[in-house]
Amino acid sequence: MELTVSRRALFISTAVLSLSVAVSGLPAIALAADGTIKLGLVAPMSGPNARYGAFSMHGAELAVKDINDAGGIDGMKIELLNADSQGTPVEGVSAARRLIDQDGVDFIIGDVSSSVTLAIQPVAEDAEVLLLNAASSNPKITYQAGVGGFKWTYRNYPTDENRALIVAKYAAEQRGFTKFAVLSVDSDYGRSAITFTKKYLPDFKGEILSEDYYKEGEVDFRSVLAKIRDNGAQAIIMYGLADTTPIIARQMIELGIAGKVALIGNGEFNTEKTIKSAPSALEGAVEAAAWLPQFDSPESKAFVEKFTATYNEAPNNHAYVHWDTVNLLAAAIKQAGSADKVKVRDALSKIKYKSPVGEVTFDDHNQARLPMILLQIENGKPSIKGAYTADIQYPAN
Q1: Dihedral angle of Cα 31, 135, 162, 392, to the nearest 10 degrees
Q2: Which phi and psi (to 5°) does residue 318 adopt?
Q3: In which element (H, E) is residue 226 found?
Q4: What tens digit of pLDDT does each residue of 64-89 get?
Q5: pTM given for the model
Q6: Contact present, 39 and 79 (Cβ < 8 Å)
Q7: Distance of alpha carbon 379 from alpha carbon 334, whole angstroms
Q8: What is the four-CA torsion angle of 337, 343, 349, 351, rounded to 10 degrees?
Q9: How far is the C-alpha of 69 from the C-alpha of 63, rounded, in Å?
């Protein structure tokens, strides 16, 4: 005989069970039958971004192991479950639903891709599951979180707007730049970074003298660089592709502006390969990063050492931010005194979490106020200038 249960009957049964728990005075804690906290991770485990997913998973695994080996969170252990987003919104939504519906998680960390995170937000909201983002940078995720609408989305990662603001602020206040030229990749990322830069440059008495964008695969920038040479710009704002930066840098030398016009923004200016491609053009370049393995704090150094020993390779940014976000969630659970998702959400909103980079708090859009690391190329090497924060000016809701 096959027993079928209607959705309504199941809902009523669940409600009665919840009421009996409340009446008995037992805590409504999101624990598995064996007393573990179920934590889901949505990341690209396959597809073109699988390497990012692997680093994300390893970072989260390392944090979970450390927490569990130390006795858990007030005795509660974490069980980490992963689901493959394949880096696409459709698969990301399916992955999140599996974690929620089949695995019964109340906490999800994900995704690396902003488009996937944007697609997951309404799923988490509908299920009232805490979505804690660790690596997506699209500002829209934050605009529509917290007072923007999605109460269950939090982000422990700087946005493209954070980066643009901090770079502009540093360039103006620390380098004295007021005249800029734009040479960015012609993509949503490259154009939106410049849009955000324009939003804040007037605060620092800065002006853009010329604005140009390049397509992926483009290799000749001489005409644009000649225009920049002649218009008196002090710095080129570039949010671009890592493979294109050396080409632009070498052509800056050809046009005689290397060492006279600085590169600022984000284009992997700090890698050894890029610097060696055109040292004089990269000298003085300014870049902002969420985290760097070279950051000089005891906690950061300990993480790098332990990750490298465990996985036989150095961690990248994705490994760090997922490791840190698991630790942030653990701190919120401990502060809440419970793994109840509502209490944990409330604890996150009030938390003052000490990360290896600096103190983290959340604003009313559930966006972490967290430092970004500023680096400048000096004498052919990246030099960390410190960790900087800046508050976003949100549009009216």
Answers
A1: -30
A2: -65, -35
A3: helix 222-231
A4: 999 999 999 999 999 999 999 999 99
A5: 0.83
A6: yes
A7: 45
A8: 0
A9: 10
Residues found in the chain: 397
Give dist(CA 147, CA 143) in Å, integer. Answer: 8
Name the DSSP letter for residue 102.
I
* Token representation of residue 92: 């990301």
CA 207/CA 234 separation, integer angstroms: 11
Give the model confidence (pLDDT) of 225-239 as tens digits: 999 999 999 999 999
Strands (E) located in the chain: 36-43, 77-84, 107-110, 130-133, 153-155, 179-185, 207-214, 235-239, 262-266, 286-289, 353-354, 359-362, 368-369, 372-378, 381-388
Residue 143 amino acid letter? Y
The C-alpha R_g of the chain, in whole angstroms, comes to 23
Q: Is 137 helix (H, G, I), strand (E, B) or coil?
A: coil
Each residue of 313-348: pLDDT tens digit? 999 999 999 999 999 999 999 999 999 999 999 999
Residue-wise pLDDT for 12-23, tens only, equals 333 333 333 333
